[in-house]
Write a structure and sequence with these properties.
10% helix; 4-stranded mixed sheet; single chain; mainly beta; 4-stranded antiparallel sheet; 157 residues; 1 helix; Immunoglobulin-like; 46% strand
């Protein structure tokens, strides 16, 4: 395959721009504490997130249907997920949008409420989950990303 200088320049520009806008870790989470859950009871777990300054993610209830919402899902347990509770979002206006957007910025905490069957096996384990988001700044959005999250669980009588 033979490249002309103009063709090579276009290819190099594309390759560089793809690298420049590759998803970086602008959203990080602190490993959650072990959840102690009693058989036949309920428990809560908080996932603390930190978004780098200058970035936002769409809330779990985005302003427009084409926007990618922040989502946290857990694999089947025990324990079983009852609900995932997000903090109240902020409404902000950005230059790239004609309307205000429902977003999260900075530090936030997502709380999951779980239930444990009365017949659940006792002992320690790890629940796995997925956190899906798309981080943006005031000029561009990064590629949507899904990160694995883990939650240590101990089921007791």
């Amino acid at each position: 395959m033979k490249f002309t200088s103009a063709g090579f320049f276009l290819w190099a520009s594309f390759a560089f721009s793809t690298l420049a806008f590759a998803q970086t870790n602008v959203l990080n989470y602190a490993p959650p504490k072990t959840v102690i859950a009693k058989t036949g009871g309920t428990a809560e777990a908080a996932l603390s997130l930190k978004l780098d300054a200058g970035y936002h993610v769409n809330s779990n209830t985005p302003s427009n249907p084409y926007l990618i919402p922040l989502r946290l899902t857990w694999s089947a347990g025990p324990p079983e997920t009852i609900e995932v509770v997000f903090p109240p979002p902020r409404t902000e206006k950005f230059g790239f949008s004609e309307t205000s957007l429902s977003v999260f910025t900075g530090d936030l905490e997502i709380v999951t409420r779980f239930k444990v069957a009365a017949t659940a096996a006792l002992g320690s384990g790890t629940l796995t989950g997925k956190l899906r988001y798309q981080a943006c700044n005031d000029r561009t959005c990064l590629t949507p990303k899904t990160i694995d999250v883990t939650l240590p669980v101990e089921i007791v009588k």
